[in-house]
TrEMBL record:
It comes from Odontophorus gujanensis (marbled wood quail). GO terms for biological process: carbohydrate metabolic process. This is SPT20 protein. The lineage of its organism: Eukaryota, Metazoa, Chordata, Craniata, Vertebrata. Pfam families: Thioredox_DsbH. Residues 6-167 form the Spermatogenesis-associated protein 20-like TRX domain.
Amino acid sequence: SPPPCTNRLIYEKSPYLQQHAHNPVDWYPWGQEAFDKAKQENKLIFLSVGYSTCHWCHVMEEESFKNQEIGEIMNKNFVCIKVDREERPDVDKVYMTFVQATSGGGGWPMSVWLTPDLKPFAGGTYFPPEDSAHHVGFRTVLLRMAEQWRQNQEALLQSSQRILEALRSLSRVSTQEQRAAPPAQEVLATCFQQLSGSYDDEYGGFSQSPKFPTPVNLNFLFTYWALHRTAPEGARALQMSLHTLKMMARGGIHDHVGQGFHRYSTDRQWHVPHFEKMLYDQGQLAAVYSRAFQISGDEFFADVAADILLYVSRDLGSQAGGFCSAEDADSYPTAACSEKREGAFCVWAAEELRALLPDPVEGAAEGTTLAEVFMHHYGVKEDGNVNPRKDPHKELQGKNVLIVRSSPELTAARFGLELGQLGAVLQEGRLRLQAARAQRPRPHLDTKMLSSWNGLMISGFAQAGAVLAKQEYVSRAAQAADFLHRHLFEPGSGRLLRSCYCTETHVVEQSAVPIHGFLEDYVFVIQGLFDLYEASLDQSWLEWALQLQHMQDKLFWDPKGFAYFSSEDGDPSLLLRLKDGAWGPWAGQGQCWHWADYDTVSPADQDGAEPAANSVTVTNLLRAASYSGCTEWVEKAGQILAAFSERLQKIPLALPEMARATAVFHHTLKQVVICGDPQREDTKEMLRCVHSTFIPNKVLMLADGDRTGFLYRQLPFLATLEMKEGKATAYVCSNFSCSLPVTSPHALRELLCA
């Protein structure tokens, strides 16, 4: 039957907005039509921000936004606006700054009440529809807000103005031109101490629950180890990072059947996740697991990196070459079901596994079945292994989230198997479960493709390709970069676009009014292009990266207070022009209801699930300077660190990626130049040496002798470097002063580790 109602969101491209197109709520997209209506009718604005694969966004829609009575209250008293946070991160950041500042936390769905001139005065996250003994319900909040506006309009307007002024003060990041970047040793030591203090020695990670992967923390620890290899603190840093990565990979946050990682764990053990899978997690985790293999040589980490990239290629990759944003947490348990459940695609009942894996195991004790071995290894229980406290809606009752509860050695010993036999048994079990899962209804795929997240995924494929010596990964990264250039870049203006959308027929579409890229789009794409150049040595990616860096400077740089703004100037609907990493705790005058048990809360760290753009751009600027000889970019990197100096010195735990970049800034990048023919084996050996060595402060470049090429034109000193005795020759340069040449991988490794 046709849906009972349709609102304006039906005309939007965003999958999240389209999900709400048939609510009884008279939703508007963010735009002038809604703003004008609020002013003309003197109504408050109710702003709801989320994303299409957010579990608790779905819950609030089912409970409240599909409720006819609640919809009538909303339509009567408010102008209701829906925003896809992934499409409009600028809008999300402005109002999330308010919610976080007034509550100390935040997440999605985000619910904020605004005056007709867009100033926030009350907000929260998820609300249940009705009051309970401990929490106020959404219906009650709506009625209270409407009553306050009728009775105390002038007071609310004054309060909202004070809130806006306080937020402007809170979010201001600037520095004096003469102020220097903070000292690296102090920042690194403090950040390490703070991470060490929050570290979970038993299960890894840096909190009790919820637990997020936070690759930024692990990247910091790898860099800290590289700079303190012989010190006890360095050993501790490496142990913390590798143990965390192993526990995550063994946990339920890792999809042992379908590959890839879920967004975060609701518990300390990395066991029960929120089941959505985000592209930005896969890109960062592929890179960090590759790095773990590079450092440790343990194939376990290489296997996990390959597992992630298999998932992304198969399930998130588009035929056009880009990557889709995410897979949903919720799906129908069977094709006959009419109600979605969280995790339905991923969880298992014990009887399902016994039916799928009935075969006897050769070499094990008589009567031992494949199911017994598999269920023991992955912690399966007859009545389900999910703690009821982590299942508030009882969607996982009697189900099991697979988690490795026993080491391969212990499982093999228990059943009298050799390790190789056990590996084959478990692999057979996973393949059968994967085939069974393929018969289930799949979760919703958000086919929106974002420049920023594709940039992170390009880095993941490129870094894994270089470290694991997998050319197919490098080729996939290049395919994605070509997609960005064709679909999310305007050659005429030199600007990036934020998003495009893939239809069911695999056609790539743009919205009627394309959204231009934000700072994070430029920063993550530039980082991806630098990583792709080092993996492929194709100078066209390097040239495009430097062009984008110039455009980033033009659009976002603050010449007075330094650092980059998150969005361009000139949008009158944005009350604040923010800089990533700028907010801090604030006891303001806004009202905030925060449903901490249920919202999709993310860490308060500015380098959190995704690194802050200003953090990543410090290293980008240093790399850009090394590839171009433009010292202005080194100055900009120092000015960003100076602008965030107070935060870096007091709470670097909030900015671990920027703390890591502080070390790179002070230690100066090593320019590793390989002179040689890229097709010759001796050149390839030298490149393999570089790719197999973890060096946090290096850039790699190939001097192939073509003096008309882009790099030779950018860096004239390359013309002075030559092959020795006809062999591929390496130079390690710093500040354009180079070491003596070496012609063997062994000698090069000694230089790199010096």
